[in-house]
Amino acid sequence: MLLRELSIGNKTYPVFSSLCYWLTMDRTGLIAHIVAFCAMVCPTQSAVGQVDNIYVYGRVKILDPTLQQDSVLVVVADTLNRDTSFLIARAPKFKYECHLAYGSVYQLSFTMPKHFSEQLLIDATEVPPDEVIGGHGMNVDITLIPRIHGTDSSLFEPLRATARFDEAVREFLWIMDPPDRSERDKLQLQCQAIIDQKLSTERLDSLKDGLGVLYPSIRLWGRSKEDFVPRHWKIFASAAGDLNGDGHSDLVIAMESEDPIRHVRPGGSTSPTRPRTLLIALGSGQGHYKALIRNNDFLMRSDEDHGASPELDLGISNAGDLTLRYQLQQGRAWFTFALVRNGLECVAYEGGRIDPKGEVAFIAFNVHDKKLIIRKGSEQKGFGEETAEPFPSDLELSMDALGRPFKTVIRPGIYF
């Protein structure tokens, strides 16, 4: 097995020639990359179950995430045998897949309302019999350019890309006709500029508390966590992961004002510290995130832990739960939230805190097993046995209902 290098743009990739071939169709990223894997040596690829054919799979990318389009029509036409199949790439992932037999030429057409259509050709007529065994896999991601008022649609050039098997290198190669995509690049840049301008104007409304303190408006769409930060605010904790199980990375952002301002806390008390906001933004799978949830109350302020600022750690578990963990001067509070009907519900908690008398109450619960674990005591008096009791079924556990940590009473003396 020989190790070789393959240059794509300004990057160099090491490639094992007997394992896989990395090809590029379009340096502009309209088709991000074409990856041909040999199915016999890559058993995790779906082509394994479909031997002796070409497994084509990929995703259609949409520039404007605000368009209410739920599907892309993918037409696969066998031009020699005059056979046609229709596939639907559905939102939000817009994924598609098909299996192509050797010995024919296939046209793949991608169509979506208010977008320019695209066609690709895969010529599978000249693949030697010994290369057919085990089949091939081909990852084809394609971006559809929208038809937007204010852009020069005459700049559009269809891709006109054809994949053919090259016996000299024993792989499929893509041929672009014409190879120059400068006009098309200009159109895509025009579209992207208009889309970015539109996205920057859509915002979550600003809010005022009882003292008139303004929580500023926040962008509804962004490409990164920094895009959601208002002027004179900053991020102090964040996490990324899949919260809603759609396969796309989502964002959790904890922000605070750069300046201390006296503001109202749940229950009517006030704090002279920096106001804070927790934001949940879901990934669209098209390079954008959309703000879904904003909570101005739940994050503890720097004066809410006996003068020491609580240390916050945010995370998203592999199961898609948001973990919000406070390490306190005299205890800890670990919350686990799940995204339920576009809201955050507390599904588990573990924590304990020392009260002014030196008493410690450790509690833990998980709504799935419906048990509440309690252990109370102190260093002077010792700790009692751990007890378990049914968790109250009528307790409201949404983040909005909880208000802020340590203000929800389960029963007298037991709170979190």
In words, what does this structure look like?
This protein has two domains: 3-192, no CATH class; 209-415, no CATH class. Strand 9 (105-111) and strand 10 (118-123) form a beta hairpin. The radius of gyration is 28 Å and the shape is elongated. The strands form nine sheets. Strands 26, 27, 28, 29, 30, 31, 32 and 33 form an eight-stranded antiparallel β-sheet that branches. Strands 3, 4, 5, 8, 11 and 12 form a six-stranded mixed β-sheet that branches. A six-stranded mixed β-sheet has the order 7-6-9-10-13-14, with no helix packed on it. The chain starts with a strand and ends with a strand. It contains three helices and 35 strands. The chain has helices spanning 129-132, 182-201, 399-402; strands spanning 3-8, 11-16, 20-23, 34-38, 54-62, 71-78, 83-90, 95-100, 105-111, 118-123, 136-140, 142-144, 161-166, 171-176, 203-204, 207-208, 214-215, 218-219, 221-222, 233-241, 250-257, 263-264, 270-271, 276-283, 289-295, 311-316, 322-328, 331-340, 343-354, 360-366, 371-378, 382-383, 387-390, 409-411, 414-415. By secondary structure, the protein is mostly beta strands.
Task: Give a quick precis of the structure.
With 416 residues, this protein is mainly beta. The protein has helices at residues 129-132, 182-201, 399-402, and strands spanning 3-8, 11-16, 20-23, 34-38, 54-62, 71-78, 83-90, 95-100, 105-111, 118-123, 136-140, 142-144, 161-166, 171-176, 203-204, 207-208, 214-215, 218-219, 221-222, 233-241, 250-257, 263-264, 270-271, 276-283, 289-295, 311-316, 322-328, 331-340, 343-354, 360-366, 371-378, 382-383, 387-390, 409-411, 414-415.
